[in-house]
Design a protein that fits this description.
This protein is an all-alpha fold and about 160 residues long. It has one domain. It has helices at about 5-30, 40-55, 65-85, 90-120, 120-125, 135-160. α2 runs antiparallel to α3 (about 65-85), α3 packs antiparallel against α4 (about 90-120) and α4 packs antiparallel against α6 (about 135-160).
Length: about 160
């Protein structure tokens, strides 16, 4: 895996993922607040989110898994977000498409973060060792609700273009 040990590669993947999440939260909050054009922040978010998705496919996983399915969905969503942001002419349609797809891309990263946290952090794993217990479901429901609210706010701002 790029000449790295599995431990090194995992650490790199985690660092990229955390940068993607932090830059994504920052970018989407700014977007929802009406700062629709933050080119550097947007580029960092989209580049690191794309990189975390690509590196996720490089792990030694065989067959279809939830991680692979999430990566495939993320790839499609990122293609839409990148097209709306960089290939389409600025318009209300491009902005609303970007707002929706970027929100979903960020949500997928945070969704995986929550899954990994419950698997890897002993205190969280004790609350939900199977990943179906109430603590895990509440955490994922809150993640979805927060991203839904953020996405609606971003979409509303995007509709002001034009």
């Amino acid at each position: 895996m790029l000449g790295l040990t599995l431990v090194q590669f995992t650490a790199l993947h985690v660092i990229i993922s955390l940068v993607a999440i932090v830059s994504g939260v920052w970018a989407m909050i700014a977007y929802a607040a009406g700062q629709l054009r933050r080119p550097v922040l947007t580029a960092v978010f989209l580049a690191t989110t794309t990189l975390t998705t690509v590196t996720g496919f490089l792990f030694p996983i065989h067959g279809m898994t939830p991680a692979i399915a999430t990566g495939l969905v993320s790839t499609l969503v990122l293609a839409v977000a990148l097209g709306a942001r960089y290939a389409a002419a600025p318009s209300r349609r491009a902005e609303t498409t970007y707002a929706a797809s970027a929100t979903v891309a960020l949500y997928l990263n945070v969704f995986v973060l929550v899954v990994q946290a419950f698997q890897k952090i002993p205190a969280l794993n004790a609350l939900a060792p199977g990943g179906t217990e109430p603590a895990f479901l509440v955490a994922q429901a809150l993640t979805l609700a927060l991203h839904g609210a953020l996405g609606i706010a971003a979409w509303r701002q995007a509709r002001t273009v034009g």
